[in-house]
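Example 5.3 — Lipocalin/cytosolic fatty-acid binding domain-containing protein
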Amino acid sequence: MTFNGNWKIDRNEDYEKFMEKMGINMVKRKLASHDNLKVTLEQTGDKFHVKETSAFRTLEIDFTLGVTFEYSLADGTELSGSWTMEGDMLKGAFNRKDNGKLLTTTRIVQGDELIQSYNYEGVDAKRIFKKY
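Solution (predicted structure tokens):
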């Protein structure tokens, strides 16, 4: 499957601005910008196993496309939502539990890069990962 593999953060685009809009304080934004995030993705049909390892935490998540699940961001923000597949793109729609606002995200593989894009209240950001 296209997403399967081990991915390591290579660079960010407007990620700090996005985190600020999310209400994450400056110290946590600075730390998160340099979290050395590694993501392992394993897809089997419509089921995904994701392992995220960073300087701050290790988290494993299992989800099925189209099925709502709960997720907590590294800063503790709790979300509820689901992923769907549109062509070669994973699309996520998650509502914050604290204010009900929508966070959307996509994942797509282009060449040897996994590009994860985010949008929250009109602020866009990207995290670009390389296979390792």
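Remark. Residues 26-33 form the longest helix (8 residues).
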